[in-house]
Each structure stands twice: as C-alpha cells, then as structure tokens.
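Propose amino acids for all 228 sites.
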C-alpha cells in the first residue's frame, strides 16, 4: 500500500476535504479521481491553488469553495520539512497561505512526504517562504534582515513571482531554527506579512514513503506503524 492509498482510507465517503498543492498532493488527487470515477467514493474538494484546481478538474474531482462548507473532514497535503514533533515548513510550491487556511478549516491534517523531508529541526533545508503584500516588500526585507534572516525575492522568468493571492514571496535563508513559535510571532508582527511557511501544531498524521512501503506517524495517538 502506498501513502496515497493509505490517505484515501482516511477519507469519509460524502465528505468535503481540502486538497493540498505540490507533487505529493497531486498524486493523491489523481488517485482520488480514479476512486470517484469508479463510483467507490463521493467527495468534494477545496483546492489550495489554481494548479491543484486544474489537476482535480482533469481527474474528475468535484470542487467547491471554502464558503460552501462550514468545516472540512480532513485536508491532505505535502510538506517541505517535518520535525519530530510534526511541525512543518511548507510553501516551496507557493501556496502556503491558502494551505494554512484550508488546514485550519479541517478537522484533521494529513501530510504525505518522502523520507528526505524528515528533519531533526525546522530550517535544516535552509529556506522559509514568507508571503508579503507587494506594497510592503521593501519594509519586510529590512525587518526580516534585522531578525537575522536572509530574504530573497522569489522571481520567475525574470519577474517577481505572484501568488494566487496576488502577493509576492520572500524566501528567507535560515539555519536550524532554535525557537519556531517565537520566530513565527516575530514574523507575523511585521506589517505586510500575510503568512509564513511555519505550520506549527497543525499536522495530525504524517505518512512517510514513496513506494509500496510507508510509515505512519500519528501525533495525537503518539504511534508509529508500518504498512504495505
């Protein structure tokens, strides 16, 4: 059994669920579409990005807006780093703000990753995305630098990258982060910052693996199991 098949077992029939962004999330969406097409599952999805919406539509997954459902049964997403306490860094796919909103609306957040995303401390991969409104880019760059970070404006094809929300992203160079909650508070105190890639105390379940073998880490029950 793959992590995507295991994640599907967690989806209640008839539910509304959050659909994350990135390769792992899109692989899950593709498999979800197969099950829906076979008539084995009825699900509506809330996408966290335009790209995810396009993948879902291509695979026949019905979509709704977050305003159309008061609560999501769960959200399935990927992550760029996962520490031993299941704290996350997300946002390399540039959808971090919508991913955080959908995660907050879900009763359960299921994260799908490969072994390489497991880290002993957040920041080990040296990059923390921060989304900022365009008007505040220069101010945010100065304030982030004052915090000891190394902000670099995300560009694509030689131009400033723009998120689905119409904002920009500063990729902040970090080393291992000593105090993630304190850093999150310091970042959110800067005017113009819309959201950060720090997802603290957000994940409920992490599925680790890329092939037929996987490990499940469930924070709430403090269990670690393996499966096929």
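Proposal:
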């Amino acid at each position: 059994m793959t992590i995507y098949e295991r994640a599907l077992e967690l989806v209640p029939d008839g539910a509304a669920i959050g659909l994350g962004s990135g390769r792992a999330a899109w692989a899950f969406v593709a498999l979800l579409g197969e099950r829906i097409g076979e008539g084995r599952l009825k699900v509506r999805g809330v996408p966290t990005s335009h790209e995810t919406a396009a993948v879902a539509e291509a695979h026949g997954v019905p979509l709704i807006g977050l305003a159309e459902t008061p609560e999501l049964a769960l959200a399935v997403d990927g992550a760029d780093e996962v520490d031993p306490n299941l704290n996350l860094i997300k946002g390399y796919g540039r959808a971090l703000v919508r991913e955080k909103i959908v995660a907050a609306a879900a009763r359960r957040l299921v994260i799908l990753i490969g072994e390489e995303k497991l880290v002993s401390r957040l920041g080990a991969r040296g990059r923390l995305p921060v989304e900022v409104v365009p008007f505040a880019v220069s101010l945010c760059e100065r304030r982030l630098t004052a915090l000891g970070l190394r902000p670099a404006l995300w560009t694509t094809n030689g131009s400033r990258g723009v998120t689905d929300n119409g904002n920009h992203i500063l990729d902040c160079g970090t080393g291992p982060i000593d105090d993630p909650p304190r850093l999150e508070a310091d970042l959110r105190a800067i005017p113009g910052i819309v959201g950060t890639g720090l997802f603290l105390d957000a994940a409920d379940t992490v599925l680790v693996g890329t092939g037929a073998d996987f490990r499940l880490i469930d924070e709430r029950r403090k269990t670690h199991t393996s499966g096929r």
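The chain has a mean pLDDT of 94. The longest strand covers residues 127-132.
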